[in-house]
Amino acid sequence: MSKKIVISSDHAGFALKEYLRAIFEEQKFIDLGCYSEDRVDYPDYGFAAAAKVASGEADLGIIICGSGIGISIAANRNPKVRCALCHTPETAILARQHNDANMLAIGARIVEKPIALEIIQAFLTTEFEGGRHEMRVAKLSKTS
């Protein structure tokens, strides 16, 4: 069974988003925009993608902005989201294995396209290990 994956970006991440969508054409990402390099506000796109993951409409999310920081902060405002900002395939693997990350943030100005592709492949093909990590991940849902 193929996972439903939502993808979105701000204007700084638009070119990388389009590059990734073309490569993962068979995946048929749910694309929430943006749809050009015209200036937009990254929180709008982080919130929208997080809502799709939190509601179960998407299994995983990929979000992109210039640094990846702002859009990941926006996504993590949703209590059902665990968005990890990753700069290497290894961090994407650990985010899935140890933290059960359900969203991935990438900085388009930080990560070159070939590395972004490797990061996403690692994120999409790695599963949560559970076990000793389950208790820690459960603590992430607590507000205080």
What is this entry, summarized?
The chain is 42% helix and 15% strand. With 144 residues, it is an alpha/beta fold. Strand 4, helix 4 and strand 5 (103-107) form a beta-alpha-beta unit.
Describe the structure.
This protein has helices at residues 14-23, 42-55, 69-75, 89-99, 113-125, 134-139, and strands spanning 5-9, 30-31, 60-65, 83-85, 103-107. The chain is an alpha/beta fold and 144 residues long. It has 6 helices and 5 strands, in the order E-H-E-H-E-H-E-H-E-H-H. Strands 2-1-3-5-4 form a 5-stranded parallel beta sheet, with helices on both faces. It is 42% helix and 15% strand. Helix 2 packs across helix 3 (69-75) and helix 4 runs parallel beside helix 5 (113-125). The protein is globular and about 45 Å long. The protein starts with a strand and ends in a 5-residue tail after the last helix. The protein has a single domain (5-139), classed as 3-Layer(aba) Sandwich (Ribose 5-phosphate Isomerase B, Chain: A), CATH 3.40.1400.
